[in-house]
Design brief:
There is one protein chain. The protein is 10% helix and 51% strand. It has 4 helices and 20 strands. Strand 11 and strand 12 form a beta hairpin. The longest helix is centred in the N-terminal third of the chain and has 23 residues.
Amino acid sequence: MNFRKTILSVSVATACISSMAFAADPKMPEKPAVPTLGQVMEATGISVNGYIDTSYTYLSGTGTFTDSTLTPGTIGSANRVFDTERRSFNVNAIDLTLSALPPEGFGGMVNLTAGSDAKYIAPAGSDGCTSVGCATADEFDVTQAYMHFAKGGLMVIGGKYVTLSGAEVIKSPSNTNFSRSILFGYAIPFTHTGVRAYFTPGGSAVSPDGKWTFIAGLNNGWDVLKESAAGGADEKTIELGVNGSVTKSIAVAAVFYSGNEPGATVGQRDLLDLVATFNVTDNLSFVLNYDKAEQEKALAGGTAKWDGLAAYVNYKLNDAWRASFRTESFDDKNGFRTGVTQKWKESTLTLANTPAKNVELRGEVRHDSSNQSSFNQPEGTTKKSQNSLGLEAIYNF
């Protein structure tokens, strides 16, 4: 009996000592969190970001105009920019941007685009393309790639970069609507290859913060990567621009392009682009975009002219919801830009929701109309109008 008590006492004591020993042992440190690729790159001064853009599109027509220079009903140019599929799920873009753009010194930026959007913005001279937006181009485009130098109020970039003109841009998350405007696709260029300088008196050209910035550049022309693919238009195009804030709530931007471009023969093309933004409140803003252009020797009959006006109303309903309405008109006076001499109008309503920090879902309805029966239909006829529906999901990273 005493022996059993002794064994029990020893067992209890051993358990207590063991418990005390374990309690006294230092706790193993937790494994440190592994930094993300973006954090690693940012620590070296390089920024990495991008987005994935997917959609479903429905068009009541075929998405093409009839070609008035051929037999009526013949398929001509597309009447959409990126959302060209009639009834389809789409991978519009997988965008990746790597940049190191210091406020002082040298840097650079590379912006890569994969997906269906890429083949519509491919410049002449890329992947064997002889004209912008090759239908046979691979769904990949080096959208921007340039060197950068900044010092005080001066910044200079050289390489390939997006145009200064227009209220809308190639990158989907930066636009308020899903479909692109008529002016974005038919009045202005997408990209340029050359050299461009920004000058912001009394401020930083990298972060002008509303100060007035003056811009001058020299490039190969509209959507031309190599002059050998410019259709004989080997003289350079100049660009002159200015942007800044008129008041705390009003910002304006103006840009002028002038240079030789191919047409029936090579002729001088001039473009004036104006954009004004009115921030009425934190939730409500208005945007106006006007374009006027002409090109000599564009057609057998001589000079071609086109102009257009777009207006936007953007309203933030709350932190998760916003709405955007766009209406515009485009006058293709000689049919040079669309293949049809016509006055083309459209109105678009987009409703967007942000269910998570990096996600935006968009739904939109759009109505296009023309004073000509120019919209091709699936059954082989033409109409003066076309309706469309778009559903889009964007993930930013």
